[in-house]
Design brief:
Helix content: 25-40%
Distance between the termini: 15 Å
Shape: globular
Radius of gyration: 15 Å
Strand order of the largest sheet: 1-4-3
């Protein structure tokens, strides 16, 4: 598999959250293969890399922290946003 394009900027906490879900679904061996930068991406990121999510697959839930800034660029508010990810086993090469 070629190197995928990822914009992952998550934390160790979010990586562990996703890894735990992978462990629950496919076991510890598969969780050991998890790499948040290359094999667990959003639906659109998979599409951009030439893959599609297999029919019937359920997303892995994670979150990102959104920073709202004022006109000067100062962070005035932070809040979590849920994101849906799909692991490499849930996708196939788009035709």
């Amino acid at each position: 598999m070629e190197k995928l394009i990822s914009t992952w900027t998550g934390s160790a906490t979010t990586a562990e959250l996703v890894k735990d879900q992978i462990t629950d679904r496919w076991g510890q061996d598969e969780a050991n293969n998890y790499d948040p930068k290359s094999n667990c991406l959003t639906f659109n990121r998979w599409l951009e890399n030439g893959y599609k999510v297999k029919k019937g697959e359920k997303a892995i839930k994670s979150f990102i922290v959104i920073e709202q800034k004022d006109k000067e660029g100062t962070v005035v508010r932070k809040y979590p946003k849920t994101i849906n990810l799909f692991y490499i086993r849930q996708v196939e090469k788009a035709s």
